[in-house]
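ugh ok so i messed up the first submission bc i forgot one of the chains. this is the corrected input, ALL of the components this time, i swear. 224 residues overall. if the numbers dont match what u have on ur side tell me asap before i send this to the collaborators (the ones from the other lab, u know who)
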Amino acid sequence: GQNIDQPTEMTATEGAIVQINCTYQTSGFNGLFWYQQHAGEAPTFLSYNVLDGLEEKGRFSSFLSRSKGYSYLLLKELQMKDSASYLCAVPNTDKLIFGTGTRLQVFP
Amino acid sequence: NAGVTQTPKFRILKIGQSMTLQCTQDMNHNYMYWYRQDPGMGLKLIYYSVGAGITDKGEVPNGYNVSRSTTEDFPLRLELAAPSQTSVYFCASSYTGTDSGANVLTFGAGSRLTVL
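and heres the new structure output, hopefully the right one now
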């Protein structure tokens, strides 16, 4: 089975950098996804990592360490619109299993 | 392309009533999923389907039923609504299974259900 852990809430200031961590335990590893979900909306895909290391995509980067069962999402130059929940998810056969999500609040 | 369309957007049910949440996608995706999301929580998988005629249970299937008679449609049925089923329900689809990293879930806008 899977066990996925993320912090429940985080706060940060506009223009700052924030790192959202995710630890997981899974019987078979096939990569790790990050999704963003604004309040009252559906989740949208942010990133996918299957190899160790950092994947950069504009202001957002995602890191994976398979040996440690650990990933993080790095958000740079934070904007107010980045206030959202960030969901870590791992595949299990044909299913995608989500963590409880981290709610990020960005303050001016 | 409309993507994934869910109806209704909002519904209030009385305890013991039944209803069907509709989900349809026009992307010719083989895989479809139903998740529920309780306030402040992550997504829990209810049921999923890897193709027409095939369905399987997820993490929290009790109290729900599904069918997949066509590639496009994947309705979720609640037979005897209970307050514990108050939640936001999301339907999602993908072209292949989630073991393929290039594959991403496309979500519908969600259906907010309240059982009183």
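quick check: Chain A touches chain B at residues 8, 30-31, 33, 35, 41-45, 48, 50, 87, 91-101, 103 (CB under 8 Å). that seems consistent at least. Chain A has a mean pLDDT of 93.
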